[in-house]
Write a structure and sequence with these properties.
By secondary structure, this protein is mainly α. Helix content is about 95%, strand content about 0%. It has one domain.
């Protein structure tokens, strides 16, 4: 059993490391600095040798430009939209908390009003009995 616990602990450590590494890499690959660096690295070879045929140009554009430059841009836009979604969810959560507080206040006021109405009815009934 001890070896199972040890293996489970190692798996948890490996999982934490994988999560950390994935978070760091996804962040690095989704910043616009990466886009500019890759753009520079993609365009530099064109000064020394250009593709000679149409097929070579299409191949170069598809393999290098689209794949190399699209990743940081897509990652950047995904991160931006995720930030907007998080912000909207936080706003909705805060609004829900405020609505719950208002609901509690209204319920308390209704209870007090109900008690007041009952007291008024009792007073009126007491007056009728005295007459």
């Amino acid at each position: 059993m001890k070896w199972l616990y040890k293996k489970n602990k190692q798996m948890k450590l490996l999982s934490k490391f994988n999560d950390y590494l994935a978070d760091r890499l996804s962040y690095i690959l989704s910043i616009m600095t990466t886009f500019y660096v890759i753009s520079f690295l993609v365009l530099i070879p064109l000064f020394y040798s250009q593709p000679t045929s149409f097929v070579a140009w299409v191949s170069y554009l598809c393999s290098v430009v689209f794949q190399g430059l699209a990743l940081p841009v897509l990652g950047y836009t995904a991160r931006k939209s995720g930030d907007k979604a998080d912000s909207m969810m936080n706003d909705m959560f805060e609004m829900t908390k405020k609505i719950e507080k208002l609901t509690e206040i209204i319920e308390k006021q209704q209870i007090h009003l109900h008690k007041d109405v009952e007291e008024i009815k009792e007073i009126e009934e007491g007056k009728k009995k005295k007459k």
